[in-house]
């Protein structure tokens, strides 16, 4: 199997295509917004028919969760060749995602549906602090409203969200962790170590890997991710974000694709998450992963490219997107032998990291 079609025309698909090229494989990208094909890493878009797709691509994967409900991309996403088909039917809707987790017995924040506006004060009475999440479409802090215990509910558009949102109990977590792993088309699995993530205003700003003091958490994280992938009959890379609460893991979100918190693997491991995704879909054996010391990933958010970055420690990955506030336009990866050495490198990136990143490093170091 040497050809894969990825639904989506963004940077994640492009990085899959780059990984495939090193293996002598081909990953082409279908851009749903333009209804055009982007062959390999090319930006020269061409038309393609359903018949050509059927003839050319034995496997279809995705770089995002949501696609138009009708049209060519919807047909491809629902095709029996799409290895994410089951995941796309469950994961994008937080109601069906949480229902699946409850069915599997996987810990997640207590929750209720927001069927009508009156459900919100009732949930606050039961849970205390709450997080209101749109059932679909929310990401990077969008579609999310956090209300602390005794907080003001007027900022939540509960009437507009009725039937379109869930309400979760606000969890007082110790830290946010994630695991990225893969399941092959033959059912073989492989996992990266748990990663420490730091979000600001709902947007991931810094990942540190491997997360410290996770020897007791790695196996439960792998079991949960494997269980989810098997339930959805999923092939490729998937990520799960967790809250760490009293030494236990609680699932926060699931991403049925390569994930921002796995970008550190570009420089931090023998095989990046993009290599692993392509391996899993092409039938290449999933070899053991060698991780290179301590790694950090710094998200570059809403900022123009700076030539000075090329003199900073680490490697810059730039996406070639137009710059706007809150948009992920690139990331930088740093690798070092220890967290102490990593901190010195990260200080060079202080101008693009929000205040507080040093405290994150200190708290992670204290766990070591």
Give your account of this protein's structure.
The protein has 368 residues and is α+β, with helices and mostly antiparallel strands. It has three domains: 3-82, Rossmann fold; 110-169, ATP-grasp fold, A domain (Dna Ligase, domain 1), CATH 3.30.1490.20; 175-366, 2-Layer Sandwich (D-amino Acid Aminotransferase, Chain A, domain 1), CATH 3.30.470.20. The chain has helices spanning 11-22, 50-56, 72-78, 85-90, 94-104, 119-127, 158-161, 218-231, 265-268, 273-282, 339-347, 357-366, and strands at residues 3-7, 26-31, 36-38, 59-62, 111-113, 130-134, 144-147, 165-169, 175-183, 189-191, 195-200, 203-209, 236-245, 248-255, 294-301, 315-318, 328-336. Strand 11 (195-200) and strand 12 form a beta hairpin. It is globular and about 55 Å long. The relative contact order is 0.12. The model has no long low-confidence stretch (mean pLDDT 94).
């Amino acid at each position: 199997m040497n050809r894969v079609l990825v639904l989506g025309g963004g940077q994640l698909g492009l990085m899959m295509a780059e990984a495939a090229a090193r293996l002598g494989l081909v990953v082409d990208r279908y851009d749903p917004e333009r209804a055009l094909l982007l062959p390999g890493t090319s930006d020269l878009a061409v038309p393609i028919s359903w018949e050509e797709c059927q003839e050319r691509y034995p496997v279809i994967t995705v770089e995002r969760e949501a696609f138009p409900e009708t049209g060519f991309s919807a047909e491809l996403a629902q095709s029996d060749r799409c290895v994410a088909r089951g995941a796309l039917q469950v994961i994008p809707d937080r109601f069906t995602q949480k229902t699946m987790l409850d069915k599997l017995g996987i810990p997640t924040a207590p929750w209720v549906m927001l069927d009508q506006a009156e459900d919100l004060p009732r949930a606050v009475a039961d849970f205390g602090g709450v997080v209101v999440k749109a059932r679909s479409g929310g990401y990077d802090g969008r579609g999310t409203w956090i209300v602390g215990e005794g907080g003001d509910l007027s900022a939540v558009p509960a009437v507009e969200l009725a039937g379109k949102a869930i309400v979760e109990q606000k969890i007082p977590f110790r830290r946010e962790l994630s695991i990225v792993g893969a399941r092959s088309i033959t059912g073989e699995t492989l996992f990266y170590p748990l990663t420490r993530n730091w979000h600001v205003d709902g947007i991931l700003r810094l990942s540190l890997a491997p997360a410290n003091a996770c020897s007791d958490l790695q196996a439960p994280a792998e079991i949960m991710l494997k269980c989810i992938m098997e339930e959805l009959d999923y092939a490729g890379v998937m990520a799960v974000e967790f809250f760490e609460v009293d030494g236990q893991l609680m699932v926060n979100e699931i991403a049925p694709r390569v994930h921002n918190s796995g970008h550190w693997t570009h420089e931090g491991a023998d095989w990046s998450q993009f290599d692993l995704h392509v391996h899993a879909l092409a039938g290449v054996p999933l070899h053991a992963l060698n991780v290179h010391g301590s790694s950090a990933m710094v998200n570059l958010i809403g900022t123009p490219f700076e030539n000075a970055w090329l003199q900073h420690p680490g490697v810059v990955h730039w996406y070639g997107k137009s710059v706007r506030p809150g948009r992920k336009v690139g990331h930088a990866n740093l690798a070092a032998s220890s967290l102490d050495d990593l901190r010195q490198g990260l200080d060079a990136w202080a101008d693009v990291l929000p205040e507080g990143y040093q405290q994150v490093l200190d708290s992670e170091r204290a766990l070591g």
